[in-house]
Structure prediction request, 243 residues.
Amino acid sequence: MNGDAVNGGPEHEPVASLRHSLVFVAIVAAVVAAGYAAQHRQVAGGGLAESHAHVIPIYVSAAVLDWLLLWFAWRGIRRRGGTFGSVIRGRWASGLDVARDVGIAALAWGVMLVAGLGMARLLGLGHGHEKSLEILLPRTLLEVLVWIATSASAGFCEEFVFRGYVQRQLLALSGSAAVAVLGQAVVFAAMHAYQGWRPVVQIAVLGVLFGVLAAWRKTLRVGMVAHAWQDVWAGWLGSAIFR
Prediction:
């Protein structure tokens, strides 16, 4: 991938209309505003929720938002004559294909883990600079299972929306792979404004890595696997292993 203009090929054609993309931007702006308000409202304990008691509805709400974003992106894509396959690109034809993509996803996740830890140290995350998100993390078996389902949902929906829809639109509009990757990472990170600005910077770096992975592999399959695993690890498995 480079910053030079690229021409030709179906991947450089818009996947939806400009009007549809402008409405999408308005939706993102509304979500960012709501997230900012959630981050700065005063609640008992200084977190984003009053207590841990109602985390499952929060997980479900996050999944519903992801699927609504996917549905909206899909409407624009379908009106343009696109299909799920044309956005995801490629199918697993054999067990070897699955093993290869899972292996690449594991390597990519390792890079993302190191990058995320480096950014956390650089930004001072985990030292009380942001309102704690710990109250939202799963504790019971049911919460863990719902978290895993939510993570799998995020892996599929967010890769489709941001690395499929947004990145492809920006590539078509700008003619630059670098602009497309960086632009979708900014939008992706902004959607997590409820976590505070330091986590948003960290998420933007991860968004760039997901975008590079999609551009390199020319498929969303690998990113979907890596993204789902990253969310499972960050929200539950990592702390369960190293607590």
About this structure: The radius of gyration is 18 Å.
